[in-house]
Amino acid sequence: MSATDPDSPPTSPRPFVVGIIGGGQLARMMYPAAIRLGLQVRLLAEGPDVSAAQVVGDVTVGDYTDAETVQAFAARCDVITFDHEHVPTEILRSLEQAGTAVRPGPDALVHAQDKAVMRERLTTMGAPVPSWQVVADEQALIAFGDAHGWPLIAKTSRGGYDGKGVWKLDSAAQAAEPFANLKPGVRIVAEEFVPFVRELSALVVRSPSGQAAAYPVSESVQRDGICVETTTPAPGLTEKQAVGAQKLALQIAHELGVVGVLAVELMQREDGSVVVNELAMRPHNTGHWSIDGAVTSQFENHLRAVVDLPLGDPRAREPWTVMGNILGGDEPDLPSALLHCFARDRDLRVELYGKQERPGRKVGHVNAYGEELASVRRRARHAAGYLMGDPAERG
């Protein structure tokens, strides 16, 4: 039978293939959104049992820092996106040169990979940033501290996350700490210590065609460098402040050519002004509230941007949503602990990541939403605390 024979069986178009590099919980949470959009997902994972590899059907286990591994994986995909920012920039450039769509591309992603590059570009743009300087050695760091005041913040230019690779130094006596065991190619960035009153997150998403959307600004609470809770929208933020933060994030996304989600982490001073702390170019912990609290989640909008579909509505469904991270604690059986949480709160939403527990590790999150902030926050904190085995919530 010929292709035009009316008796020939109809042919279906091949599904669009999105390759995700990194097998953590962000890739895991992208997967349901991909299913809804009719996208096929292929995963390059660090191991066979990591979070996303437990649910994605097409998994390649390999080293994302090995060029041949990444190139072979990308050859089976229409577009590449990420669960993390750690794929070497030169590998991503080789993919683009071979004709693979990489979103966000290396020219944008390098600003999330390298804090020195990020600070330089934001300064050139006129974005509000702390005073900063790349310092070559202990003496240069001391000179920066003497000029800008102690304490100061020192950061590794690459590789740090969840508080790792960051030091608060109170005096010159501590200046040697950041340079101990420094890896080749990694620099130390010195920054003024900003006496902020709270941390905010302005999360936006941008498509290759230039369409962009901004989520409500969230307040985040950090402990030991790890996000433990977000409240959306950020309480007490004026409309002018909220719009200003969203415009800043949209400007950065446009200037850097970001495709997908961009999270701009901000420090708010007592006078209400903000400075940019960090950038992340992928779905972000501070956007997990959107799975249950927004018309379109950050994960769906990230994928819509990656394949250049029109973006969905980022507005909140309810007046307040509080997300609480579940960190590895004293509860060894999270699924069984859900019995109490769901019996107590039928509106509670829980996402478990399938990760082995260890102290401080993010193993899931809870979302509570509603019309009264104090009640919503209380519900989220109880559920997260109970799932961590907190005795105060088990009494």
Could you explain how this protein is built, in words?
- The structure is a single chain.
- By secondary structure, the protein is α+β, with helices and mostly antiparallel strands.
- It is built from twelve helices and 18 strands.
- α1 packs across α9, α3 packs antiparallel against α4 and α4 crosses α5.
Overview features:
alpha+beta, five-stranded parallel sheet, single chain, 26% strand
In short:
This protein is of the alpha+beta class and 395 residues long.
Largest sheet: 9 strands, antiparallel
Low-confidence stretches: none
- The rounded Rg comes to 22 Å
Residues in helices, as a percent range: 25-40%
Strand content: 25-35%
Structural class: alpha+beta
Blueprint of the fold:
Elements (H helix, E strand, L loop, with lengths): L16 E5 L3 H12 L3 E6 L12 E4 L5 H8 L4 E4 L6 H9 L3 E2 L3 H8 L1 H11 L6 E4 L2 H11 L3 E5 L9 E4 L18 E5 L5 E9 L5 E3 L3 E6 L2 E7 L6 H18 L3 E9 L5 E7 L9 H4 L4 H9 L13 E8 L6 H11 L4 E4 L9 E9 L2 H15 L3 H4 L1
Parallel strand pairs: 1-2, 1-4, 2-3, 4-5
Antiparallel strand pairs: 6-9, 7-8, 7-9, 10-11, 10-12, 10-14, 12-13, 13-16, 14-15, 16-18, 17-18
